[in-house]
Amino acid sequence: MASTRRSEETSHASSADREAIVRVALDYIGGWFDADQARMERALHPDLSKRSVQADGAVRTLTREMMLGFTSEGGGRREDAPDRRLEVEVNHIDGVLATAVVRCHLYVDYLQLVRTDAGWRILNVIWRRRQQG
Fold it and tell me: 10-129 has which CATH code?
């Protein structure tokens, strides 16, 4: 049987953690569209793996270095829209682990974050393009 109640871990998470996770998620997606490498770098864990499933079923993996390069080259600026409609949903916080979803006009990104000495950082992402139309 499925449960819709909040987990004990999430309900006891501090509002500061929740706000920090939202800031990291916004640095990630906002940094992409603004071609702001510093924001992107602030959001990503050094061991980032960002994955997508291609139409043929193959999995494409990007590293932190690749994401920083694509960001500084302005990849996101070419895809930006006047109304990005950014949405961050923090799903779960459990001590040093968290999950969140970022939605915008083009993408849905599922984030796994870890708390580091430098704060929350995105360790893993799986993403897809939003359905158009």
Answer: 3.10.450.50
